[in-house]
Protein backbone atom coordinates (compact mmCIF):
# COMPACT_ATOMS: atom_id res chain seq x y z
CA UNK A 1 0.00 0.00 0.00
CA UNK A 2 2.92 2.29 0.74
CA UNK A 3 4.11 2.08 -2.83
CA UNK A 4 0.64 2.90 -3.99
CA UNK A 5 0.52 6.03 -1.85
CA UNK A 6 3.94 7.14 -3.03
CA UNK A 7 2.93 6.64 -6.65
CA UNK A 8 -0.21 8.62 -6.15
CA UNK A 9 1.64 11.46 -4.49
CA UNK A 10 3.70 11.89 -7.65
CA UNK A 11 0.65 11.89 -9.84
CA UNK A 12 -1.46 14.32 -7.87
CA UNK A 13 1.17 16.72 -6.61
CA UNK A 14 0.69 19.00 -9.60
CA UNK A 15 -3.08 18.79 -9.61
CA UNK A 16 -3.97 20.15 -6.21
CA UNK A 17 -4.86 23.50 -4.78
CA UNK A 18 -7.19 24.60 -7.50
CA UNK A 19 -9.28 26.32 -4.89
CA UNK A 20 -12.72 25.60 -3.64
CA UNK A 21 -15.33 28.14 -2.66
CA UNK A 22 -17.91 27.29 -0.05
CA UNK A 23 -19.28 23.85 0.75
CA UNK A 24 -18.53 23.51 4.44
CA UNK A 25 -20.13 20.20 5.23
CA UNK A 26 -18.90 18.27 8.22
CA UNK A 27 -17.77 19.94 11.37
CA UNK A 28 -15.26 22.66 10.60
CA UNK A 29 -13.44 23.35 13.80
CA UNK A 30 -10.83 25.67 12.47
CA UNK A 31 -11.73 28.08 9.73
CA UNK A 32 -10.43 31.54 9.02
CA UNK A 33 -11.71 32.15 5.54
CA UNK A 34 -12.17 35.92 5.87
CA UNK A 35 -8.56 36.64 5.14
CA UNK A 36 -6.79 36.22 1.87
CA UNK A 37 -5.32 33.05 0.47
CA UNK A 38 -6.90 30.19 -1.43
CA UNK A 39 -9.23 28.31 0.92
CA UNK A 40 -7.87 24.89 1.73
CA UNK A 41 -9.86 21.99 3.17
CA UNK A 42 -7.86 19.27 4.89
CA UNK A 43 -9.52 16.04 5.99
CA UNK A 44 -7.86 13.84 8.61
CA UNK A 45 -8.68 10.15 8.87
CA UNK A 46 -9.03 9.86 12.64
CA UNK A 47 -8.42 11.53 15.97
CA UNK A 48 -4.61 11.42 16.42
CA UNK A 49 -4.09 12.87 12.92
CA UNK A 50 -6.75 15.48 13.60
CA UNK A 51 -4.98 16.78 16.72
CA UNK A 52 -1.65 16.98 14.90
CA UNK A 53 -3.29 18.84 12.01
CA UNK A 54 -4.98 21.30 14.41
CA UNK A 55 -1.56 22.17 15.81
CA UNK A 56 0.19 22.41 12.44
CA UNK A 57 -2.52 24.64 10.93
CA UNK A 58 -3.24 26.65 14.09
CA UNK A 59 -4.22 30.22 13.27
CA UNK A 60 -3.36 29.93 9.58
CA UNK A 61 -5.86 31.89 7.47
CA UNK A 62 -7.97 30.05 4.93
CA UNK A 63 -7.23 26.55 6.21
CA UNK A 64 -10.03 24.34 7.44
CA UNK A 65 -9.43 20.98 9.15
CA UNK A 66 -12.21 18.40 9.28
CA UNK A 67 -11.96 14.99 10.89
CA UNK A 68 -13.45 12.28 8.70
CA UNK A 69 -14.59 10.00 11.49
CA UNK A 70 -16.29 10.88 14.77
CA UNK A 71 -13.82 11.82 17.54
CA UNK A 72 -15.28 8.81 19.38
CA UNK A 73 -14.56 6.31 16.59
CA UNK A 74 -11.14 5.25 17.85
CA UNK A 75 -8.78 3.07 15.83
CA UNK A 76 -9.79 2.46 12.23
CA UNK A 77 -8.66 -1.15 11.87
CA UNK A 78 -11.92 -2.43 10.40
CA UNK A 79 -13.51 0.89 9.53
CA UNK A 80 -15.73 1.05 6.44
CA UNK A 81 -16.32 4.39 4.74
CA UNK A 82 -19.90 5.68 4.88
CA UNK A 83 -21.64 7.60 2.07
CA UNK A 84 -21.39 10.67 4.35
CA UNK A 85 -17.60 10.24 4.49
CA UNK A 86 -17.41 10.23 0.71
CA UNK A 87 -19.42 13.49 0.57
CA UNK A 88 -17.10 15.01 3.16
CA UNK A 89 -14.09 14.06 1.07
CA UNK A 90 -15.47 15.42 -2.16
CA UNK A 91 -14.35 19.03 -1.70
CA UNK A 92 -11.17 18.31 0.26
CA UNK A 93 -7.84 19.04 -1.40
CA UNK A 94 -5.71 17.16 1.11
CA UNK A 95 -6.21 14.09 3.27
CA UNK A 96 -3.90 13.23 6.17
CA UNK A 97 -3.72 9.55 7.08
CA UNK A 98 -1.76 7.64 9.71
CA UNK A 99 -0.70 5.04 7.12
CA UNK A 100 1.22 1.90 8.13
CA UNK A 101 -1.95 -0.06 7.38
CA UNK A 102 -4.28 1.75 9.77
CA UNK A 103 -6.66 2.95 7.05
CA UNK A 104 -7.68 -0.19 5.23
CA UNK A 105 -10.17 1.83 3.17
CA UNK A 106 -7.55 3.92 1.36
CA UNK A 107 -7.94 2.16 -1.97
CA UNK A 108 -11.57 3.16 -2.06
CA UNK A 109 -10.70 6.81 -1.47
CA UNK A 110 -8.04 6.96 -4.14
CA UNK A 111 -10.47 5.42 -6.64
CA UNK A 112 -13.06 8.10 -5.93
CA UNK A 113 -10.96 11.21 -5.29
CA UNK A 114 -8.13 11.02 -7.75
CA UNK A 115 -7.14 14.69 -7.43
CA UNK A 116 -6.91 14.74 -3.64
CA UNK A 117 -3.40 14.88 -2.23
CA UNK A 118 -2.68 12.15 0.31
CA UNK A 119 -0.30 12.86 3.20
CA UNK A 120 1.08 9.75 4.88
CA UNK A 121 2.15 10.55 8.46
CA UNK A 122 4.15 7.31 8.70
CA UNK A 123 6.11 7.89 5.50
CA UNK A 124 9.67 6.58 5.90
CA UNK A 125 9.27 5.72 9.59
CA UNK A 126 10.52 2.48 11.06
CA UNK A 127 7.65 0.20 12.05
CA UNK A 128 7.48 -2.49 14.72
CA UNK A 129 5.97 -5.83 13.82
CA UNK A 130 3.23 -7.47 15.88
CA UNK A 131 4.58 -10.62 17.46
CA UNK A 132 1.25 -12.37 17.01
CA UNK A 133 0.55 -11.91 13.30
CA UNK A 134 3.77 -10.41 11.92
CA UNK A 135 1.91 -7.37 10.55
CA UNK A 136 3.25 -3.83 10.90
CA UNK A 137 2.02 -2.05 13.99
CA UNK A 138 0.44 1.29 13.01
CA UNK A 139 0.14 2.83 16.53
CA UNK A 140 3.16 5.12 16.14
CA UNK A 141 1.55 8.20 17.73
CA UNK A 142 1.16 6.45 21.09
CA UNK A 143 4.85 7.07 21.79
CA UNK A 144 5.87 10.72 22.05
CA UNK A 145 8.77 10.17 19.67
CA UNK A 146 6.38 8.59 17.17
CA UNK A 147 4.05 11.59 17.51
CA UNK A 148 7.01 13.93 16.93
CA UNK A 149 8.07 12.04 13.77
CA UNK A 150 4.53 12.00 12.44
CA UNK A 151 4.06 15.72 13.18
CA UNK A 152 7.29 16.46 11.31
CA UNK A 153 6.16 14.32 8.39
CA UNK A 154 2.79 16.04 8.14
CA UNK A 155 4.27 19.53 8.50
CA UNK A 156 6.84 18.96 5.76
CA UNK A 157 4.36 17.39 3.35
CA UNK A 158 1.80 20.14 4.00
CA UNK A 159 4.45 22.79 3.35
CA UNK A 160 5.32 21.11 0.04
CA UNK A 161 1.66 20.85 -0.94
CA UNK A 162 0.76 24.44 -0.09
CA UNK A 163 3.93 26.52 -0.66
CA UNK A 164 2.15 29.84 -0.01
CA UNK A 165 1.62 28.88 3.63
CA UNK A 166 4.76 26.73 3.98
CA UNK A 167 6.53 29.00 6.46
CA UNK A 168 3.45 29.08 8.71
CA UNK A 169 3.06 25.28 8.72
CA UNK A 170 6.74 24.80 9.49
CA UNK A 171 6.73 27.35 12.33
CA UNK A 172 3.67 25.70 13.91
CA UNK A 173 5.29 22.28 13.47
CA UNK A 174 8.35 23.51 15.37
CA UNK A 175 6.21 24.94 18.17
CA UNK A 176 4.26 21.72 18.61
CA UNK A 177 7.38 19.55 18.48
CA UNK A 178 8.94 21.66 21.24
CA UNK A 179 5.90 21.00 23.44
CA UNK A 180 6.08 17.27 22.67
CA UNK A 181 9.80 17.18 23.47
CA UNK A 182 9.23 18.88 26.80
CA UNK A 183 6.53 16.34 27.62
CA UNK A 184 8.82 13.46 26.63
CA UNK A 185 11.55 14.74 28.96
CA UNK A 186 9.06 15.08 31.80
CA UNK A 187 7.74 11.55 31.20
CA UNK A 188 11.25 10.10 31.24
CA UNK A 189 11.95 11.87 34.53
CA UNK A 190 8.94 10.18 36.12
CA UNK A 191 9.00 6.77 34.43
CA UNK A 192 12.75 6.03 34.23
CA UNK A 193 13.28 5.62 38.00
CA UNK A 194 10.27 3.29 38.49
CA UNK A 195 11.26 -0.18 39.63
CA UNK A 196 8.34 -2.12 38.25
CA UNK A 197 8.46 -2.07 34.43
CA UNK A 198 6.06 -4.92 33.60
CA UNK A 199 2.76 -4.06 32.01
CA UNK A 200 -0.14 -6.07 30.60
CA UNK A 201 -2.19 -4.18 28.03
CA UNK A 202 -5.36 -4.55 26.00
CA UNK A 203 -5.23 -4.11 22.18
CA UNK A 204 -1.88 -3.85 20.37
CA UNK A 205 -1.56 -0.07 20.87
CA UNK A 206 1.38 0.27 23.24
CA UNK A 207 4.52 -1.34 21.73
CA UNK A 208 5.98 2.03 20.62
CA UNK A 209 5.15 3.61 23.96
CA UNK A 210 6.66 0.66 25.85
CA UNK A 211 9.85 0.79 23.77
CA UNK A 212 10.22 4.51 24.38
CA UNK A 213 9.99 4.19 28.15
CA UNK A 214 11.64 0.78 28.45
CA UNK A 215 8.50 -0.93 29.71
CA UNK A 216 7.95 -4.62 29.37
CA UNK A 217 4.67 -5.72 27.73
CA UNK A 218 4.08 -9.18 29.16
CA UNK A 219 0.77 -9.87 27.50
CA UNK A 220 -1.74 -8.22 25.19
CA UNK A 221 -5.17 -9.36 26.21
CA UNK A 222 -7.67 -8.19 23.65
CA UNK A 223 -5.90 -7.60 20.40
CA UNK A 224 -8.36 -5.21 18.79
CA UNK A 225 -11.55 -3.50 19.86
CA UNK A 226 -14.72 -5.47 19.36
CA UNK A 227 -13.11 -8.88 19.87
CA UNK A 228 -13.61 -10.06 23.41
CA UNK A 229 -11.31 -12.96 24.25
CA UNK A 230 -12.90 -16.40 24.16
CA UNK A 231 -13.21 -18.29 27.49
CA UNK A 232 -10.17 -20.35 26.46
CA UNK A 233 -8.07 -17.26 25.68
CA UNK A 234 -9.22 -15.70 28.94
CA UNK A 235 -8.04 -18.74 30.89
CA UNK A 236 -4.71 -18.68 29.05
CA UNK A 237 -4.25 -14.99 29.76
CA UNK A 238 -5.02 -15.44 33.44
CA UNK A 239 -2.29 -18.11 33.50
CA UNK A 240 0.17 -15.76 31.77
CA UNK A 241 -0.57 -12.89 34.14
CA UNK A 242 -0.31 -15.15 37.19
CA UNK A 243 2.94 -16.70 36.00
CA UNK A 244 4.43 -13.27 35.24
CA UNK A 245 3.66 -11.98 38.67
CA UNK A 246 2.33 -8.77 37.08
CA UNK A 247 0.74 -6.57 39.71
CA UNK A 248 -1.05 -4.20 37.35
CA UNK A 249 -3.21 -4.40 34.25
CA UNK A 250 -3.75 -1.50 31.88
CA UNK A 251 -7.08 -1.41 30.10
CA UNK A 252 -8.10 1.32 27.67
CA UNK A 253 -11.01 3.67 28.33
CA UNK A 254 -12.24 3.22 24.74
CA UNK A 255 -12.84 -0.49 24.90
CA UNK A 256 -14.97 -2.93 26.83
CA UNK A 257 -13.50 -3.78 30.19
CA UNK A 258 -15.37 -6.95 31.06
CA UNK A 259 -12.38 -9.13 30.25
CA UNK A 260 -10.04 -6.76 32.08
CA UNK A 261 -12.19 -6.88 35.21
CA UNK A 262 -12.39 -10.66 35.08
CA UNK A 263 -8.61 -10.99 34.71
CA UNK A 264 -7.97 -8.49 37.49
CA UNK A 265 -10.35 -10.35 39.79
CA UNK A 266 -8.88 -13.77 38.97
CA UNK A 267 -5.25 -12.71 39.30
CA UNK A 268 -5.48 -10.15 42.07
CA UNK A 269 -3.76 -7.59 39.80
CA UNK A 270 -4.78 -3.96 40.09
CA UNK A 271 -6.66 -2.50 37.10
CA UNK A 272 -5.67 0.91 35.65
CA UNK A 273 -6.57 2.76 32.48
CA UNK A 274 -4.02 3.91 29.90
CA UNK A 275 -5.33 6.03 27.06
CA UNK A 276 -3.85 5.44 23.56
CA UNK A 277 -5.20 8.87 22.49
CA UNK A 278 -7.50 7.55 19.79
CA UNK A 279 -10.52 9.51 21.03
CA UNK A 280 -10.96 12.82 22.85
CA UNK A 281 -12.03 16.45 22.62
CA UNK A 282 -11.49 18.63 19.54
CA UNK A 283 -8.77 20.60 21.27
CA UNK A 284 -5.25 21.01 19.93
CA UNK A 285 -3.73 20.40 23.38
CA UNK A 286 -5.73 17.21 23.97
CA UNK A 287 -2.92 14.78 23.11
CA UNK A 288 -0.57 16.52 25.55
CA UNK A 289 -3.23 16.34 28.25
CA UNK A 290 -4.00 12.66 27.61
CA UNK A 291 -0.30 11.81 27.92
CA UNK A 292 -0.01 13.87 31.13
CA UNK A 293 -2.88 11.79 32.50
CA UNK A 294 -1.19 8.57 31.37
CA UNK A 295 1.96 9.69 33.13
CA UNK A 296 0.00 10.19 36.33
CA UNK A 297 -1.50 6.70 36.03
CA UNK A 298 1.85 5.03 35.29
CA UNK A 299 3.56 6.81 38.15
CA UNK A 300 0.89 5.57 40.52
CA UNK A 301 0.64 2.03 39.12
CA UNK A 302 4.32 1.19 38.78
CA UNK A 303 5.82 2.83 41.86
ZN1 LIG B 1 -5.54 0.14 17.23
UniProtKB/TrEMBL annotation:
Superkingdom, natural source: Bacteria
Transport keyword on record: yes
Transmembrane residue ranges: none
PROSITE patterns, sorted: PROKAR_LIPOPROTEIN
Alphabetically ordered keywords of this record: Signal, Transport
Residue ranges of coiled coil: none
Position of the signal peptide: 1-23
Pfam family of the protein (one): ZnuA
Entry similarity comment: Belongs to the bacterial solute-binding protein 9 family.
PANTHER family linked: HIGH-AFFINITY ZINC UPTAKE SYSTEM PROTEIN ZNUA, HIGH-AFFINITY ZINC UPTAKE SYSTEM PROTEIN ZNUA-RELATED
Record's protein name: Metal ABC transporter substrate-binding protein
Organism expressing this protein natively: Dehalobacterium formicoaceticum
